[in-house]
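Need residues for this backbone.
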């Protein structure tokens, strides 16, 4: 059962207010060029399906990736790309000058899905697909060999996946590997379904898909990252986040036409958008 707690006014202001000041210098030629590249990928109907584009109004990809500071020359790793919604934006943006790395969790030999997990690395990137540049690759995270050399990655992105990483029990090891791979000043960008701070829930044992923003911030800072900025780009006040079946109640995976009218009106989940950086060494 979810138990309401009382949240202090100061904490509420920090968590749900404007957030930390942006250090990014918006308006420069570099910013505009990067934004144009992101917009071009978002508007590419040859790569992105109608269902992809239908979700843009909830996931705000141009604003989100611009907030994280994505540029076309970066080496960018995406953890848990799933069906590739963000991949179909990130891969084209970095295809010519940068590098895209798709990251998935290490296969579990005891899992019924082991064979499919083993095939993932070979099949995720279709070399005949023009959206991938020549340096694009797919790797596993959490293995003996790190997914990238130390200080070699510009940005790691985790979209709507921190609840799964926390629930699997080795999120600290994952964050340590990400910290090692990132260059000093490199970015860890997180978009996550946001649990209400007045709910008494444990993200390790309560699989609702939602995690408290304060929990994520404390967890990632404890791993050695600095919180650079927060944003309400992906906030959704229509999501009460009190669903019995958690975030999956909102039917985000369905086309709008197939969703319950109630959930068409709500849209997708209320989400935090957090930008962390690896401290300069």
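Answer:
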């Amino acid at each position: 059962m979810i138990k309401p707690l009382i949240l202090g006014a100061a904490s509420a202001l920090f968590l749900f207010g404007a957030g930390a000041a942006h250090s990014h210098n918006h308006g420069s030629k570099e910013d505009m060029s990067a934004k144009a590249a992101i917009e071009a990928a978002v508007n590419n109907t040859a790569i992105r399906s109608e269902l992809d584009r239908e979700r843009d109004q909830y996931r705000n990809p141009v604003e989100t990736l611009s907030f994280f500071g994505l540029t076309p020359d970066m080496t960018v790793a995406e953890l848990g790309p799933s069906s590739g919604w963000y991949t179909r934006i990130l891969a084209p943006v970095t295809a010519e000058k940068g590098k895209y790395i798709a990251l998935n969790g290490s296969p579990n030999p005891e899992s019924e899905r082991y064979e499919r997990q083993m095939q993932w690395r070979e099949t995720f990137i279709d070399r005949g697909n023009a959206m991938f540049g020549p340096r694009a690759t797919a790797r596993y995270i959490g293995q003996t060999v790190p997914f990238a050399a130390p200080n070699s990655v510009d940005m790691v992105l985790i979209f709507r996946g921190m609840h799964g990483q926390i629930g699997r029990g080795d999120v600290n090891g994952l964050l340590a590997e990400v910290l090692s791979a990132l260059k000093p000043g490199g970015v860890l960008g997180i978009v996550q379904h946001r649990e209400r701070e007045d709910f008494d829930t444990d993200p390790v044992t309560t699989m609702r898909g939602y995690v408290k923003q304060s929990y994520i911030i404390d967890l990632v800072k404890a791993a050695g990252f600095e919180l650079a900025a927060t944003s309400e780009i992906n906030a959704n006040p229509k999501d009460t986040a009190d669903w019995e079946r958690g975030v999956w109640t909102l039917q985000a995976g369905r086309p709008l036409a197939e969703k319950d009218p109630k959930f068409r009106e709500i849209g997708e989940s209320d989400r935090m958008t957090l930008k962390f950086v690896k401290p300069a060494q």
